[in-house]
Specification:
Length: 200
């Protein structure tokens, strides 16, 4: 009886996991226990209808993090540095920034200029200019691009098209030079274009 209950619970959990894959949400791989070197990697929303509209090339972090910028806000001590910036590919945001719906036959379009901010976070306090020096661009900037998505809804069908921000995803390490060891990690999402989801 207990084995039967375990099987039912396992099947239910599997069905719930499969259902979740059909929604336009980001998936995060969990780090191994005790692994504080890197944040969880964020994947592109799991939907086969997703279309990527890239607007700018990816910035490759400098190998030595040598880009220097004058500090505007200092939130850490002189021994805290960011290093080992790494580009980890594209990721689509989960927040809908625009959408259109309607009955077919018709073509739904999304065309609008949008300002999308770069976002970042770190597990310990560090100044943004140090992070920018490591990844190769300002982590406090805002990128303005024009979205241009379209979807033709078949006759007799009700359809939609939704736009999500497309980001380049970076990770970096935070080190303390006085202690000579890594003390944290961080991640940066830099606007690169748009992702579109549609259905009818």
């Amino acid at each position: 009886m207990r084995n039967a209950i375990r099987r039912i619970v396992g099947i239910s959990a599997g069905v719930a996991a499969l259902a979740a894959l059909g929604t336009p949400t980001a998936l995060a791989a969990q780090p191994a226990p005790g692994d504080k070197a890197h944040p969880a990697k964020t994947a592109t929303p799991a939907t086969h209808r997703l279309t990527v509209d890239r607007r700018i090339p990816a910035v490759i972090p400098p190998k030595d993090g040598a880009i220097q910028a004058a500090p505007s806000v200092v939130t850490d001590d002189a021994f805290t540095i960011a290093k080992n910036g790494e580009y980890n590919g594209e990721t689509c945001g989960t927040n809908t920034i625009d959408q259109a719906t309607g009955w077919g036959p018709m073509t739904l379009t999304l065309t609008q200029s949008r300002a999308i901010a770069t976002t970042w976070n770190a597990s310990v306090s560090i100044s943004p200019w140090k992070v920018g020096a490591t990844v190769g661009f300002s982590v406090t900037d805002t990128v303005t691009k024009t979205e241009a998505g379209a979807y033709t809804v078949p006759a007799g069908k009700y359809g939609y098209i939704k736009a999500f921000p497309l980001y380049d995803y970076y990770t970096f390490e935070v080190w303390n030079t006085q202690m000579g060891r890594q003390i944290g990690w961080g991640e940066v999402r830099h606007p690169a274009g748009f992702c579109y989801d549609h259905s009818s």
